[in-house]
Amino acid sequence: MLDTTADGKRKGVPVNSRVSTKIQQLLNTLKRPKRQALSEFFLDDSEEIVEVPQPDPNTPRPEGRQIIPVKGEPLGVVSNWPPALQAALARWGATQAKSPALTALDVTGKPLYTLTYGKLWSRSLKLAYTLLNKLGTKNEPVLRPGDRVALVYPNSDPAMFWVAFYGCLLAEVIPVPIEVPLSRQDAGSLQIGFLLGSCGVGLALTSEICLKGLPKTPQGEIMQFKGWPRMKWVVTDTKYLTKPSKDWQPHIPTANTDTAYIEKLLSLSLSVRVSCVCPLSGETLVNVLDCKKDMGLWHGVLTSVMNRIHTITVPYAVMKACPMSWVQRVHIHKARVALVKCRDLHWAMMAHRDQRDTNLSSIRMLIVADGANPWSVSSCDAFLNVFQSHGLKPEVICPCASSPEALTVAIRRPGARGAALPARAILSMGGLSHGVIRVNTEDKNSALTVQDVGHVMPGALMCIVKPDGPPQLCKTDEIGEIVLNSRAGGTMYYGLPGVTKNTFEVIPVNQAGAPLGEILFTRTGLLGFVGPGSLVFVVGKNEGLLTVSGRRHNADDLVATALAVEPVKTVYRGRIAVFSVTVFYDERIVIVAEQRPDASEEDSFQWMSRVLQAIDSIHQVGLYCLALVPANTLPKTPLGGIHISETKQNFLEGNLHPCNILLCPHTCVTNLPKPRQKQPVGVGPASIMVGNLVAGKRMAQAAGRELGVLEEEGLVRKHQFLSEALQWRAQTDPDHVLYVLLNAKGVAVCTATCSQLHKRAEKITSALMERGGLNTGDNVVLLYPPGIDLIAAFYGCLYAGVIPVTVRPPHPQNLAATLPTVRMIIDVSKAACILTTQPLMRILRSREAAASVNVKTWPTIIDTDDLPRRRPPQLYKPPTAEMLAYLDFSVSTTGMLTGVKMSHSAVSTLCRSIKLQCELYSSRQIAICLDPYCGLGFVQWCLSSVYSGHQSILIPPMELELSLPLWLSTLSQYKIRDTFCSYSVMELCTKGLGTQTDALKARGVNLSCVRSCVVIAEERPRLALTQSFSKLFKDLGLSPRAVSTAFGSRVNLAICLQGTAGPDPSTVYVDMKSLRHDRVRLVERGAPQSLSLMESGTILPGVRVIIVNPETRGPLGDSHLGEIWVQSPHSSSGYYTIYGEESLQADHFNTRLSFGEPHTLWARTGYLGFVKRTELLGSTGDRHDALFVVGQLDETLELRGLRYHPIDIETSVSRAHRSIAESAVFTWTNLLVVVAELAGSEQEALDLVPLVTNVVLEEHHLIVGVVVVVDPGVIPINSRGEKQRMHLRDSFLADQLDPIYVAYNM
């Protein structure tokens, strides 16, 4: 890189171009100041959140000295003994050919055949020859030495497995024994697939019968199992094997440490293992264990051939049918050794009654493979108790401890005849949970009795190290993980060097951290200690360890406790799984058991509550969840045990399908933060304001642009009233089409020009005057489906001088639910008359209607379908613009029916404000798809077109139920630039058309014409919905900037509306924890616990908003959360109430700030929100102030002293499980109740309970008190698509929900 000048001197590099751009970038980066490291942006704030339990001073601590490694006795070398397995097989095959090697039993437990050593040798040779020479061509062999081969044989066919195993060893390929896959979805299938993939296995050996039984595709090929690599299958039955040619000889190695076979993911090198533990040459061994893995393989297949033993295998199927079969085999064959598990002892003892003449005196060693299990003691004792009278000697019981990594870790030798049995350890459960050994003296219940598993294996070295962190040596009275150094053991995890290092190459360190020499140890995964006389005691396994609040509990111990609670009535075959899940910064214990088919719900709940008490008193730990599932539904391991990790996965994914469940978050979640104590506001509003000003913060307020002078002299100066505007339009532009109504087919079924609308309104006015007997100012209810009749009736009322009240008509299929609301509005508004259509009039007077309301007391009903053409003598003109124009009734989300009064001046100012914001002229077309009964929806449907003269294309939302694409295809067909809809419509399109965008595109639907699509709402913008709508229909040309929202409330129907001139709505991310404390803290996108909020649209012309502290009524600073107050000429003039609650009126509509602008009158919206000044520029060139709506004050839940918005909890709940269609929350007493609609099958109902509880605890730090699972459609929703949570609460309390399941969390 250096440049040498002519005179040979070197000089630096002055020219940038000589440096590669990469290096230049690097230099520039180094010059730049460093950005904060990412970790500092998102600190895990568990410290602030979690209540940290204070350490208990009485916690027991280890006090002993540091442990010294324990040595096994030296491994003696027997002269003239075969050096390796292959050599042993060759020797016995030649010299002891007639000697029996293996006897297999049929399903009834009778001997099926016996394989001699001669046959085993000759068949293995044939297989080795076939594998190496007959599978491919000479130049292209399929297998080479060192390749891995899967062995797929059922338990019932041990001989085929033996031949295949030894055949592979002789062919120098590496056998990988695996389970027979029963179905594509088998529980362990993925793990087996991972094993085969990482070992690079492409060939599987199996028997003909087994191959026939494998699941096949319809074409007859073997199915591709989940997660498996592509496999070639080879059948190894004798008839398919070739006799080796004369000149072929297998390579018989001397002992070495090459990989001999792979089990699970362990690669095991077989060195010789001969010791006094092993059975002696020529003895008979009865093996009940699976000969493909663990002790069954090491002792029943390898050691037995090494020592020329006759093995009798008792398959699992035989044991199921006749649990005594292994005892009979011992008796018949006078076997010297038996290899069993505790369960075999247990079942044999249970089935013993029908056997009188068994004799077990021949047994020299009864090896109990899982003797390290805490409950093995009772099985061994009970078995001895029963069979001692049949010749069983106490000293022959040999419990042993093993682990997949270190093979046999320790085994108890058979004792001398009559010698005392080793002492047992009776340990305190409390001490064990703190990892220390304490002899239990007080309570018999909370003691754990453990038996020793003998001494360390010969030639091995053992230490106890701390189970987590660096492998530090434990003290003598401390429980730790057993680590072992031995020639006989696994050497590595195949293909996983990182994990191998941590497991197989451990060097223990002392307390100072200094390593203990060079010797490498292997972690066994067993937890235990070395007791007196160097006896090894095992108290549990690493994988079943549950660490709850810093204390360790063993899954097996908890299972033992649960089994002790008389499970006979409830639990099916004692099948219980225990695991822990992490919820809210700690492990939580879950117990899942299979329930007997005949157990009653009463029995089950009794059993569950007793298990809770037992575990609490014995282990001093709370259970988080106890679930019972139907018998035989838990995922099984190949030998029928419970597949724990798969069960846990099913629990967390909601695939467990329990039939009974009990959650106890209230008792076991003890680390919740302390409830917030609300401090009295000691600081006055004036001080807050001054503080904000001093801090340089502006007051949180925002305003739309000025309404300006009236530019259309002709129209509005003359016509302050909408009724006059319509008359003027009918005279000056009679044929201009104002309204087009579409049906489900997209056909215009009705249009209205200015003059047609005027004439239809006149007809209705005449009818009102003639038949209504009305006085000026009476209220008239308009009961119409969405359409032009509704608009004509509205103007007919204005012409007649009566006050229209629009009401959503009752649903003919659901009168019982919808008619009472209609009746209520009619009664509250004291309507003197009802205008409606003929079909609706029939419904009002029908028998069905009479079932839910009194139909005899309806006011006068006038049907306006076929009115005669009459002109009224004169049209009414109000004396002042402050007179009432119409009443707007709506049911709020809290279930309150409120009617507000709208004056003529408010109506015309509102229409003018919308006209300016959306630039509406008579040449424009807009499409409206929403319910036209209240709020801004009604204004857009009935009023705006008459004021501004633009054409409105009306799409009733119920038509979308018949034809979903109607709204979008209308936008495309008419090339609409501006459209208004509701959230319900947007949701219908998103859910129903999301998968059909290609079909719509093919039909020519193109949305690139749409400039603004505004959702009319009175709530926080549903950002997730608007974003998914934009993304879904982007392919149809919809601009991502088009979708926005409007915001209105009862006191002011339209506060924000995204028009054409304002900047795009901005989005901010706020911290949810701060929101609960009524504060706004802005965070980066993607920060944990953040909530995205979208601006609710640009503030309308003539509107001012200010953010106020609802308690002190003082103004707040920028980006502070408070109540939104509004001031505008189009605010409603008050509530319409029968009782005239003036105080409420004054409080909501004419309120003054306690400080600041004392003379201005404001209206309180009842919504919480904040104003934030953005970097964007408004239409006037000033910086734009954005209004963010957070939620309605009346709806918020006060829990633990914090303020929660239901929608936030519901969003979390709906994410918890794929089958939750909708959810709603409310409080009952001080419990949080979650109602979830289940869209899946009913067997998933109880899966929702733990998932809902987990997600609310994790994300909101609240404990759910009740989870109610209901059918879809139970949560009531109003016409704007808002949930009616209070109605739901009332139905819940009145027990009217008809739930699928109700779970009361304890």
From TrEMBL:
InterPro entries: AMP-bd_C, AMP-bd_C_sf, AMP-dep_synth/lig_dom, ANL_N_sf, Dip2-like_dom. SUPFAM superfamilies: Acetyl-CoA synthetase-like. CDD domains: Dip2. Pfam families: AMP-binding, AMP-dom_DIP2-like. Residues 95-262, 727-1136 form the AMP-dependent synthetase/ligase domain. Residues 1195-1297 form the AMP-binding enzyme C-terminal domain. Belongs to the DIP2 family. This is Disco-interacting protein 2 homolog Ba. It comes from Oncorhynchus mykiss (Rainbow trout). The gene is LOC110491053.
